[in-house]
Every structure is written in C-alpha cells, then in structure tokens.
Amino acid sequence: MSGGVDSAVAAARAKEAGHEVTGIHLALSRNPKSYRSGARGCCTIEDANDARRAADVIGIPFYVWDLSDRFHTDVVEDFMDTYAAGQTPNPCLRCNEKIKFAAVLDKALALGFDAVATGHYASVVQGPAGVELHRAVDGAKDQSYVLGVLDEQQLRHSLFPLGDTPKTKVREEAAARGLLVADKPDSHDICFVADGDNTGWLREKLGDRAPNQGGEIVDEATGTVLGQHTGTYGFTIGQRKGLRLGHPAPDGRPRYVLDIEPVSGTVTVGPRERLAVERITGDRLRWCGAPLPAGTMLDGPDVTVQLRAHGAEHRAVVRVLDGQLDVELVEHAHGIAPGQAVVVYDGTRVVGSATITRADRVPVGAAG
Fold first, then answer.
1. 43 tagged catalytic
2. DSSP state of 362
C-alpha cells in the first residue's frame, strides 16, 4: 500500500473477494526527505500515514517494512550507475523486479502468505500453457510495461485487482468506500528524485563516479563544436530542450541528442530524422511465462514492442538469440537509448522483456 488510491482499492477488493489481507507499506528511505519532500504519491511520511488510514477504513492489519537498504542498492545505485555509463534507465522496472516482486514477495511467502497484490493496472490470467500477464482494460493507465520483468514464478504469486477497471471508476469506488485518498493525485516522475530534477539530483549524488565532469556538444554532420556541458548524465537520447547550443542549425530546425559518449564526454546532436531506429538488441532477458528457447522467432500482425512506459506500440519481428533479443522494427521508433527496456507483446499478452544494449539508427537518407 503506497498511500495512493490504486493500492487502497486493490486491498479493499482483495478483502472483499474473501482473501485474508494484510496491508504493507514499504519504507524505501531511512530519511524520506533525503529522496523527496511533500506528498508526491510515493516514499514520504505523508504517504505512509495515508496508507495506514486506508488500511483502518478497509479493516485490515497494517505494517511498514523497511527495505531502504535493498532499495538503495538495487534501484538507486543502479539508476546512478546506468546514467554514469551514458545510458537511460527505468527505475520503476528495476523496483518491480528487485523490490516489490522479489524482496517483498520472498518475505511474504516466507511468512506464509500466498501472493502479493498491488494497484498496478494489468491482468494475470490462466492461459492454455500457464499463467499469463496481459494489458489492463484502461489503455491510458496500463502498466504492463513496467511489469514486463516479472517471471513465471512471480506471476503465479501476483494479483492485480484493478486490471479490469478504468481509473475513473477506481476513484469513484474509493470515494464510495470512504477512502480519503480517492482524489489524491497520481505520483509522477521518479519517486526518489526531488521535484523531478534528474540532472540536479545526479550532479549532487554522482560526484566522482561520473566518468567526466564536462565535455563538448558536437554536430553529427559537420563535427562542429556547438557548446560545452558539465556532465553527460544531464542528457538522454532524443532530448531537445536544455541543450544551450551557441550555434543555430543552418536550416533553423531544432537539434536533438543522438549519442552520448561518457568516457570522452562528447554529446552528439543532429536533426530529428536521425533519431529513427530500425533495429534493437537487448540482453537481461526476462520471460513472463515459460522461457522461449534460442532460435524462436515471433512474427505476425499482433507481435509488437513497447519501448517506454507510456509509449506507442511498434510492429516488430522478434528473434530470440543466445542470451539476447534481436528486434527488427517494422515501424521505426525515435529516440531509443541503451538502458531502456524493450517489452514484447503478442496482442495484449506480455511475452517478456530485455534491456536495450544497442539501437541501430536508420541510415542517412533512408529515414521515414
């Protein structure tokens, strides 16, 4: 129970379905204000109090589990290391993989519980070959992307009571149940970064871990140095704003970040069409069901990939290699960076995911 409306309604539904329910709030920082301040929907003292009040209304026991050390090591440190390497991480996936459905689930099973229920918008169903993870009914709130790291064992012990309900109905239900969080705003940004200022937070936390403390911003086509920066961790592939370039493009069009080289500190920029990606390679494969053997090819009108938490689906041909995933994009994607997750779908079913290690751009003159 995060202290938000979704997990509160999920807990209420689980109890109403006849389960013996215990509310658990995760303390992810020994000093919550060291990560963020104010009621932002996650990781604050206010959120813990909101969760406790919701549990009282529902009529279930409530406990706080301190997972701050594990969270810092597996999520926060991973976030910093990935940015320092010039990549773009998604800490929500790592939190689901390492904390909510690993550390929490392991502890719950050891204590005799059968499953972990959360307020994520997704559905677990029993398919012909076993348990399956599917998209939520509410496409605008679907969170199956950030759950694409869950394996078959974890899915067998997971419940997502909100997968069949639009978010507006969840809020109405919360109000009808007398839950004070019914109108609480959704959490946004990264829960441990104050005010959503990733660059400022990284500048403060990384220190000497960053491989460089500055470098050049270079035009891809001409090699011209357009400006200077104070650290590659302040950039992501596809970024347009905040580049502070001293030289406008000859055609007057905006430039975007195309490449980040953390060792030399070089950030390469160019026009938007140079962000088009036609092929992706990924490792750290995670299967939401039975693992697919090397040599498997997924092709067909329903095979798609999603590359961002709230991004579009892209038609693709997916090949399983030895420890890697090869994704040929039938529909080009833009601004894809190493470190992001590629989640594979067959219709509404989540097949699995991988961490992107390489994104091959469309050759010059061929981008559409």
1. no
2. P
